[in-house]
Amino acid sequence: MGPSGSPVPDEVLDDARWRTAGDRIQTLLDASSSGGAVARERAERLVREVTDLYGAALERMIDVALAANPELADRFAADDLVASLLLVHGLHPHDVERRVTQALDSVRPYLGSHGGDVSLLGVHDGVVRLQFQGSCKSCPSSSVTLELAVEDAVRAAAPEIESIEVVAAEEDPGRSVIPADSLMARVRTDVHRATAWQPVPELVDLSDGEVGGFRVSGVTALACRVAGDLAGRSGGNIYAYRDRCPSCTGTLAGARLSGAVLRCPGCGAGFDVVHAGAEIGGDNHLEPIPVLVRDGVLSMAVPQEVA
């Protein structure tokens, strides 16, 4: 159920079910290990045989469909579930550079809300080279969420890539290329937390101007949908933050959204949810949680405290 009590659409639940099939298959494979190494090997061989069989049939179907109507390639690519299966079998109709470009386009509005942007410098020999422009310099958690959102989107669109290199525009060219994995590890260590993506299909129930509380993987998050004209995009946009006011350290439960400004019910401080949760007339920031469509389902990148 969503925050307004309305049921989650059946097609959303169906999508979520199939997109978690890989996890269920892995769980069954792990369970087969209790029968010993031979049982595990046979289970893995069975999965490979079934996967190869359906992959061969899928390849023939794609060839026939595209021969009859080449425009179907874009329709296949636009369906996240179909596209993910095509990627598994190496049958995706779009090349890796196009897929990475589209992935960056999908997160660019989110980056813009934090005062940042990203450019694709190129893809060569399995290495994706990116360059970030701008950022919310006064909000360390914004850097984490921006880089996490970009890395996740790129790897989801092009799982075959070997690495991501980030070129920092403001640094000396001789020292500007940083392996993305090292960058992510350093940033996450600095804020003492890891992050995991969690599907939250109930977010689709939020109406323009509505604020809802969500308990996701042990973290309480506050999510709101800003009207399209205020968010800069038609159809509105969803933003999420941890349930903690940085001014009074109290809960944001009961907060109301006025335009793009979220006001703390405790101290009255206002925060611009469209621009990284920056405090109106102050230096504080709400702690942002990325909200992106992953595998066709709205998901949150939930921070997990590291013990």
Structure characterization notes:
Helix 2 packs antiparallel against helix 3 (37-68), helix 6 packs antiparallel against helix 7 (140-157) and helix 7 (140-157) runs antiparallel to helix 8 (180-190). Residues 1-6 and 171-193 have low confidence and may be disordered. It contains nine helices and 15 strands. The chain is an alpha+beta fold and 307 residues long. The strands form four sheets. The protein has a four-stranded mixed sheet. Strands 6-7-8-13 form a four-stranded antiparallel sheet. The protein has a four-stranded antiparallel sheet with strand order 9-10-11-12, with no helix packed on it.
List keywords for this structure.
alpha+beta; four-stranded antiparallel sheet; 9 helices; 15 strands; disordered N terminus
Give a nutshell description of this structure:
This protein has 307 residues and is an alpha+beta fold. Helices cover 39% and strands 25% of the residues.
